Known about the structure:
With 78 residues, the protein is mostly beta strands. It has one domain (2-77). It has strands at 13-22, 27-36, 45-55, 58-68, 76-77. The strands form two sheets. It has a three-stranded antiparallel β-sheet with strand order 1-2-5, with no helix packed on it. A two-stranded antiparallel sheet has the order 3-4. A hairpin with a 2-residue loop joins β3 (45-55) and β4 (58-68). The chain is flat, with a radius of gyration of 16 Å. The two termini are 30 Å apart.
Amino acid sequence: MKSDITIPKVENVFLAAVQEWSDDFMEKVWYVYLINDSDFDLDSVMVVSKAFGTIDREMYRDWETDRKSTRLNSSHRL
């Protein structure tokens, strides 16, 4: 049950959204970085993202869930 799940308090872990130039798309795109500034490795990280915009004047929406099972010990590009 949902009440049986214990979610520990997380400190010194941050998200940074940065706009960078992409040679693939020849325009600026957004990248999100998970920054672990703690002394502990992160384990079982789940990332859910939502993006939307226009491509050739048509509205485009993208929903993505990315489960990262690797250990993250410093900044990691998502």
